[in-house]
Amino acid sequence: MNRLAQSKSPYLRQHAENPVDWYPWGDEALERARREDRPILLSVGYSACHWCHVMAHESFEDAETAALMNQNFINIKVDREERPDIDEIYQKVVLLMGQGGGWPLTVFLTPDHRPFYGGTYFPPVPSYGRPSFRQLLLALTDLWQNRRADVEGQAEQLLEGIRELSAGGQDGDGALVGPGPLKAAATDLLSRIDPEWGGFGRQPKFPNATCLEVLMLQNRVDGTGSDELLLTLEKMWRGGIYDHLRGGFARYAVDREWLVPHFEKMLYDNALLLGLYADASLRWPEHGYLRRVVRETVTYLEADMRGPAGTFYAATDADSEGVEGKYFCWTPAQLEEVLGSRDDAALFAAVYGVDPRGNFEHGMSILHLAQPLAPTAGALGMTEAALEARLAPLRARLLASRYQRVPPLRDDKILTAWNGLLISGLVRAAAAAEQWGEPELRAHWLALATAAARRLLDAHIGAHGEVMRVDTDGVVHTRGYLEDLAFLARACLDLHEATLDLAWQQAAAVLARYALAHHAVSGGVGFYVTADDAERLIERTESQHDSAIPSGLGPMVEVLLRLDLAGVAPAGARAAAEACLQRQGAAVRQPFAFASLIAAAQFAAPEAAHVTLRGASPEAVAGLARTVAAARPAMRARLAVSFEAAEGPPAALVCRAQVCSTPIGQPDALRAALLGEASR
C-alpha cells in the first residue's frame, strides 16, 4: 500500500497496491525531488483509460520495474480529469517530440518541473517501435547522472517549444465574426468527412461533437452538409460505438466503420452528443433514430450515471473481469440461453450482427446494426414497426441479464465541467421533447438538469466565488479551471432560457464576473486555464484549443456575448469577448482546434437575435416563450433569450444588430419577426 491509498481520486487509488513508491502531485513529492536532486517520473492517466491499465499491469505492478523507478526517480501519479492544467502542459512535450499525445502520459522532469523527455505508453519489452519501459528508465538514469548538460539543454528546448505552442493561433488576422469564417470552417471540416462511413478521417474514429456542431450551424444557414451530417449521425448510432441495449456512446471506435469501440463511456461524450442529436431530431424529424438516441442516452445517464445528489459520475471503464468489452459482447449461445428461444436468438443475432465466429476478441460479438431496420424488416416480411416491437422486449431481457454480469469499474467522481456540459445537453433534449409534443418528458429532463445545476451551485462554489472542480463521495475539492466556470455559466444561461427563472441568469453573470477578474489575460484578450491565485506551474497556460471537450475559451466567450445581448453582462464583457475573437484569427484555419470558439463567435454576428420576454412573471410570458421555442429550429442565426420582469401585458422584443422591435404581444407576429430574415 503506497501513499495513493489516501487519495480522493478513484484513478490514483487504482495504483495504491503498486510496488511503486507513488506520490500524488504536491509539495511533499516536489520538495523531495529538489532536496535529493532526483528527476521526476510523471505518469498521467484516468480511470477509464484502457492503455493506462495495460501499462500499470505490465510495468507498475512489476517488482523489478518498480525497483528501478523507486531507486532513480520521484514517481508522481496524476489524474488528468482532476488536474487538466498539469496534463495540458506536459502533453505539449509529447507533441514536440513528434508523437500524437494521449494517455497514459509519461514525462520525465527536472526537480524544478521542467520536462526533458516524454512519451505515452511504453511496453515491457521493445515493440511498437518503442524501447521497453525498463530500457527507457535505465537510459534516462544514465543521462541524468552522467550527462546533466544534455538534460539541461533538452529541458530548455522543450520549455521554449511549450511557449511557442502556447502562442500559436494568435495572429489577429481578422475576427471570427460573420458568415465567412463559419462557412470556411465548415467547408474545411466537410472535406474531412469519410464519404462512406461518416465521421472525420479514417481510423480511429472519434465522435468529435464540437466540430459537428459547427457543421450544424452552417447547415442552418444554407443547408450545406445535410448528407454528411446524417451519414455520420446514423453510422455512429448503428455502429458498435453505441450501446444498443442501454443507450449511450463509447469514447471512440478503433476502426473506420464505428464497429469496435474502446468500450469506456465518458460523461462528456454523452453530454455533447445528447445535445447534438436533440437538435438534429428537430432539423430532420423524419429520421426517427435521432429521437431514439436522445431518449436512450438520457435513460442510460439517469439509470447508470446519476449520483444521489443529482449530479452525474465521470466515466465507466472498458474492462470487466480483466477483459476489454466482456460486459458488452455476446455469443449466439448466450443469446439463446437468455432469450430461451432459438428463433428469438436467431432473429436478434441476425439484426445485431452476432456471429458464431464473432466480430471481436475471444469469439464475442459487438452488437451493431449492419443495415437499417427497414430492409431487414422487408426481408422478413414485416413492417419496420412490427420488427421493432418484437426486438424491444428481447433487448430488455438481454439488458436485465447483462446487469447480472460483473460490470466495468465506474469512476464515481463528480466533475463540475462535465456536469455543466450535461446540463446543457439535457436542456437541449428537453427543448426537443417539447417540439416532439411530449411535455412530460420535457419536464422530467429539465428537472434532471435543474437538480444537477442546483447541486453544483450549492456545493461547488467557494466562499470567495471560486468554482471547485471535483466531488468525491460528497467531499468537494480541487480548485476549478476556466472550463468549470465556463460550462457551468453556460448551463445556467441555458436553464434561464428554458425556465425564465432570473436566478439562473444571475448565477451566470456572477461566474462570468469571476472569470473576468481572475482568469482574464492582461488586456482582456484571452483567458488562462487557472485563476490568478491558483498553484503556479512552469507555465500559466491560456485556454485555447479544443480537445475531446471544448476548451474553456469558446464557451466563456459565448457566455459573455449572451449576457451582453441580454443587457446584464459584467463590465468589460463584450470588449473581452470581441478581443478574443479578433486575436484568434487563425482559428478559422484550424477548425478542429477552435470549433467551440467559431461556434461562440456566431453570437457576435449582426444577424444573431436576442428576444427579451417581458411580463409580470415567467408564467405570464409562457405562451410567447413557446412561440420562440417552436421558431428556433427554423432560424438561421444564433438566438439568445432572456426574461425581464415588467408591469403591463406580456410582450417580446426582438433585437438584431443593436436594433430592436416594438413590443410584440401576439404569437403570430412574434413568429414572423423571428423567421422573417432569420429562416431558410
Automatic annotation (TrEMBL):
InterPro entries, sorted: 6-hairpin_glycosidase_sf, Ssp411, Ssp411-like_TRX, Thioredoxin-like_sf
Organism superkingdom: Bacteria
Pfam family, one: Thioredox_DsbH
Residues in coiled coil: none
Domain Spermatogenesis-associated protein 20-like TRX: 1-161
Matching SUPFAM superfamilies: Six-hairpin glycosidases, Thioredoxin-like
Transmembrane segments: none
Protein's name in the database: Thioredoxin domain-containing protein
Organism annotation: Nannocystis bainbridge
Source organism phylogeny: Bacteria, Pseudomonadati, Myxococcota, Polyangia, Nannocystales
